[in-house]
Amino acid sequence: MSDHVPKRRASTATGRGRRVAKRLLVVGLSLVLIVGAVGVGLYKHFEGNITSLSGLNTLKDRPTKVQTGSKEPLNVLVMGSDTRKGQGKAVAGSTPGLSDTTILLHLSADRSSAYGVSIPRDTMVERPACKRKDGKGTDPGGLTQFNAAFAIGGALCTITTVEHITNVHIDHFVVVDFNGFRKMVDALGGVQVCVPEEVNDTTGRIHLAAGTYNVTGEQALDYVRVRHGISANGDIGRMKRQQTFVAAMIKKAVSAGTLANPVRLLKFLNAATSSLTTDPGFAHLRQLASLGESLKNIGLDNVQFVTAPWQPYPEDTNRVELTAAAAGLWKEMRYDRPLGSAYTSQVVKASDSTPSSSASSSSSASPSSGASASSSPSASASSDVDYGDAAVQAGTFTLKNNKAQTEEQKKETAEENGLCT
User: Fold this and answer.
1) Per residue in 214-237, pLDDT tens?
2) Which of 76, 109, 226, 363 has the fewest CB atoms below 10 angstroms from its CB?
3) Domain boundaries in the chain?
4) Residue 110's CB: how many other CB atoms inside 10 A?
5) Spatial distance between the Cα atoms of 395 and 100, rounded to a whole number of angstroms
6) Are 371 and 343 in contact (CB under 8 A)?
7) Which of 110, 170, 350, 316 is closest to 243 using CA atoms?
8) What is the pLDDT of residue 290?
């Protein structure tokens, strides 16, 4: 095979890390819960923004759908794609067209519960043969990194790969383009992001002290893409950081401040729907809204998230492999059974808290008009932030917290203040 995938170091999963591996799928699903606030004409406009991708029903050698009762369970594959088409200044050197986040979402047949399983992008898998997305024949497959499937054959190749390693039939899929983040974040007037520890990426020129910041779309892209200068390094850590950010973004999207602001709401919906690619069955807002309504009726406490059990890959510790326990997890899903006790110790509920909008440490920066910030009640707005036009042009943003603390103390303070739960 000739899949050239850059090496990245796999990070160790922590309890706090697992708490944030939860809601990328909210971009593709929960936004439909607020579409009802707009008129029919705009409804059709937003629906027209969604890209429909056919081919799901023509895939070969698929696992059979198991139905144990009169109703059918539903399995939806949610993928976050980072095409990197010129968006974001600071972080470079990554391979374009990879799937950054993949979550297999299962809704029970009686719609009483739901759970999603994240598959680490660095997982080594035996990928089946896939049609190349450029139309130039078929790639033979073989042992490779999981997210290479998206680079080679797009969403359909990823679906084929997931079905091959899980033996779970996928009914629908949603792809969320991370480049849509920029417009979504800017439409909301920025999104608050928690930084529990200092980020000092000299390669990407991103510098953040521990604290909470209101970031613009471009800054958000840079932050969720950063791979260096942070202890939670590697793609697993980055995946969790991206999911945390999405949770914070959706929290603001469904806040009263957004729903009561027609201009902000419409801009966000336009950006969000423009970032979605789905199978034809999900290309209509009515179908997406039905799924969103099912999740709403299930209740956030009954929507759980876990990461597929993994361990370092013996031949390359920059990669991971799924453990034998993962096979049991896929079997639970295939036969529409709830998560077993072997997995509930690591479960995350969709109702788990996200960064608080009333946190005591917050900063904001505007590339067009300089910056103002307040990292503590007594902090000086003019001295806390260094964000000049020259820095913006160079692709650098620096937000400084002047508290006289060690980095570990800053991290602990952020956690104690509830900024990073």
Assistant:
1) 999 888 888 887 766 666 556 667
2) 109
3) 15-189+232-349
4) 12
5) 23
6) no
7) 350
8) 80
**Do residues 172 and 163 make contact, with C-beta atoms less than 8 angstroms apart?**
no
- CB 271, CB 87: distance < 8 Å: no
Paired tokens of 125: 């898998």
Count CB neighbours of 128 within 10 A.
20
Residue 14 to residues 97, 152, 274, 323, Cα–Cα distance (Å)? 28, 31, 34, 17
Q: Averaged over 265-283, what is the pLDDT?
A: 90
Q: Are 123 and 304 in contact (CB under 8 A)?
A: no
Query: Do the Cβ atoms of 414 and 361 come closer than 8 Å?
Result: yes
Terminal CA-to-CA distance of the chain, rounded, Å? 42
Range of lowest pLDDT (106-115, 116-125, 235-244, 367-376): 367-376
- Give dist(CA 398, CA 385) in Å, integer: 7
Question: Distance between CA atoms of 151 and 158, rounded to whole angstroms?
Answer: 9
Tens of pLDDT, residues 171-200:
999 998 877 878 899 999 999 888 887 888
Average pLDDT of every residue of the chain: 72
372 compared with 109, residue with greater pLDDT: 109
Look at residue 80 in the predicted model and tell me its pLDDT.
84
| Alpha-carbon gap, residue 348 to 369, rounded angstroms | 40
Percentages (nearest 5) of helix, strand, coil residues in the chain: 40, 25, 40
CA–CA gap between residue 232 and residue 210 (Å, rounded): 14
Distance (Å, whole) CA 280 – CA 183? 25
- Cα–Cα distance, 393 to 361 (Å, whole number): 27
Q: Where are the beta strands (DSSP E) in 132-274?
A: 138-139, 142-145, 172-177, 191-195, 199-201, 206-208, 211-215
Q: Which CATH number fits domain 15-189+232-349: 2.60.40.10, 2.40.110.10, 3.40.190.10, 3.40.630.190?
A: 3.40.630.190
Rounded distance, CA 174 to CA 313, Å? 29
Q: Beta-carbon neighbour count of residue 167 at 10 Å?
A: 16
Look up residue 249 and give its amino acid: M
